[in-house]
Amino acid sequence: MNTVYPFLVVEHKGNNNSLEGNASIRLILNLFLKLLQSNYTTDQISDMG
Question: What is the DSSP string of 11-45?
Fold first, then answer.
């Protein structure tokens, strides 16, 4: 997760003045989290952190 976070921050700043951009980031983040939940157990995610 530490490698993904800076990328999300950079993208968020880039779209700071765009509501559509911010909505897209939330959508991508939600899909990403769902993907993690479907592929990893809670124990595996904490090991990654």
Answer: HHHHTTT-HHHHHHHHHHHHHHHHHHHHH--HHHH
